[in-house]
Design a protein that fits this description.
Structural class: mainly alpha
Low-confidence stretches: none
Number of helices: 6
Distance between the termini: 23 Å
Shape: elongated
Mean pLDDT: 81
Radius of gyration: 15 Å
Helix content: over 70%
Strand content: under 5%
Order of helices and strands: HHHHHH
Number of strands: 0
Length: 108
């Protein structure tokens, strides 16, 4: 039963297998795609008034997965998402940096 089993060993094994399976270029491409998806989901809160508020919290998921694979790639993803939000919707940048971004850094 996995409910009470420690998850850190399972996460380490999954991250190790992903790091060994893909090249560094492929990992950077996955990081950039996760950053783009995160920026789109985060900017949905300002673009679509009611539905966007439901979609916006889902922006943590792609970057949490990248942070689990590698903390350095998670930092790259955070920085790239901030740059994308400056271009796409600057009003969401402060929300991302101080709430959503810190949440996924803590979770990852």
């Amino acid at each position: 039963m996995y409910l009470f089993k420690r998850m850190d060993r399972l996460v380490e094994m999954a991250a190790y297998s992903v790091q060994n399976r893909f090249s560094k270029t492929a990992l950077l491409v996955m990081t950039s795609i996760a950053s783009a998806v995160t920026a789109l989901l985060q900017s949905a809160g300002g673009t679509l008034p009611m539905i966007g508020l439901i979609i916006s919290p889902l922006s943590t998921l792609p970057v949490v997965l990248i942070t689990i694979i590698s903390p350095l790639l998670g930092f790259y993803s955070f920085a790239l998402t901030c740059l994308l939000l400056v271009i796409v919707q600057p009003s969401e940048l402060l929300i991302f940096i101080f709430t959503t971004g810190l949440a996924w850094i803590g979770i990852g």
